[in-house]
Amino acid sequence: MSSFKQILKNSVIKGTFILTFAGLISKLMGFYYKIFLSGAIGAEGIGLYQLAFPVMGIALSVCSMGIENAISRFCAKESDKNGIFTSGIMISLCLAFIISFIIYNNSGFIAHRFLLNDNAAPLISVISLSIPFSCIHQCVNGYYYGLKKTKIPALSQLFEQLVRVGSVLLITYYMHCKGNEVTPVIAVAGIAAGEAASSIFSLAALKINIRYKPSFGNWKNNTGKIIGMAFPISCNRVLLTLLQSGEAILIPAQLIIFGMTRTEALSAYGVLTGMAMSFITFPSTITQSAAIMLLPTVSEAQSGHDSHLISQAVTTSINASLVMGIFCVGGFIIYGAPFGALIFHNELVSDFLRVLAWLCPFLYVNTTLTGILNGLGKTGITFMCNIIGIVIRIAFIIFLIPAYGISGCMWGLLASQIFITAAYVFILARMYPFRFNPVKAILLPVFALIISVLISLFIYVPALTAQVPYAICLILGVMVAGIVYCSVIALFYRKNV
């Protein structure tokens, strides 16, 4: 137990805090960015923007996602870290230039045949230019994660977001000055600018901070290791992304069958994926950061045959994720839903958030457990669980959206996350038996949530009647609820230490 606490103190918590801090700032910038985009290009434009994302997702699945994981894992275990990174980034860039060239020259075909929307062709052309830069950025991040150093990845994340938002603001200002129409192309132009800037920053930091020098001495062996691990991960990611792409294409198509026009369907899809899900995934910055840091830590524990540490990591991850997720359920339903509608000027956001809020506990648990399973080298398990989860979502889209509209899609999201959580917990319990206390992990957070919401309403309701601005009332309510909730949880854990 003491060794686990020491590791948490020295690496996981420190790294998670740095990545979370950067992630929260980046998410706040992203919120402003999404609000700005919703006004500049509208819900339909955001839907088109979201529709182009699967193309980039497939490209990065082929070029870098598996390689980033391989670099991170082998840099945590091997002595030839520079050689591992050199081999990984060379493979990634070769693939990136080939894929980027293919996508750029076939953007019209991809938009027409696969995305079923010819208007997406310009977005695909621009987004293809960002692929090599994204690969550089991800490979450098993988190198630093393997070293358990998170400052440079955190700074590069902030820099990327700053350039992305700043470039879109400048382009929009220029377009308005010239009297030209602002289109969704500006959003993907911002992606390309941000990725280019972050890749240059990452390479410069690597040279200055680590004094990295390319190493080709053990190139053949390192390449074999990276391909051996990255290939199945990349194949899994490609299949996973293809299914996700099919899901993204099916949602607007099934909404048309439900009775919506093409514009209404694309707008509803944009509100769901570009606005409502931005709220739901905001707290997951913490769990995503923890998952990144857990991967090399658990990998080291596995190499040292420290099964006790792994069991403790699973227990702590589940408990912490449930504590955060249960609070988010109440917070989003009571305060987040009206706040989302207020800032995006769209009542659909509020309706969607009240359903999507129930995703939070499962979504956050899944994120951290994915990091643990990947750290154990069980990428095949996470792949299969995610494939089944997507199949569940697609089934809901096909069979329920024509009858129940967009609600069928949200029910599918919830059903898939519940399945993945159950599968992960069952698999990890068989591999590394861990303790789970439902009183501490579920009943206590639910009790704390009820107390915190009731107390916050005693302040929120009088503030409304006193004609305090609505946004201030919502922020005040959620802040009071959060303080009370954390206090109740902390008091319980302090008495039980």
Structure described in brief:
The chain contains 18 helices and no strands. The chain has 497 residues and is mostly helical. The longest helix is centred in the middle third of the chain and has 40 residues, at 219-258.
Task: Give an overview in words.
- By secondary structure, the chain is mainly alpha-helical.
- It has helices at residues 2-40, 42-77, 81-105, 107-113, 121-128, 131-146, 151-178, 185-210, 219-258, 262-280, 284-303, 307-344, 347-356, 360-375, 379-404, 406-431, 438-465, 470-495.
- Residues 1-9 have low confidence and may be disordered.
Q: How do the helices and strands follow one another from N- to C-terminus?
A: HHHHHHHHHHHHHHHHHH
Low-confidence stretches: 1-9
Oligomer: single chain
Strand content: under 5%
* Distance linking N and C termini: 13 Å
Shape: globular
* Helical segment count: 18
Instruction: Kindly state the percentage of residues in helix.
Output: over 70%
**Main structural class:** mainly alpha
User: How many domains?
Assistant: 1
How would you state the average pLDDT, rounded? 83
Number of strands: 0
Question: Could you tell me the radius of gyration in angstroms?
Answer: 23 Å
Taking the sheet with the most strands, its summary is: none
What is the strand and helix layout of this fold?
Elements: H1 2-40, H2 42-77, H3 81-105, H4 107-113, H5 121-128, H6 131-146, H7 151-178, H8 185-210, H9 219-258, H10 262-280, H11 284-303, H12 307-344, H13 347-356, H14 360-375, H15 379-404, H16 406-431, H17 438-465, H18 470-495
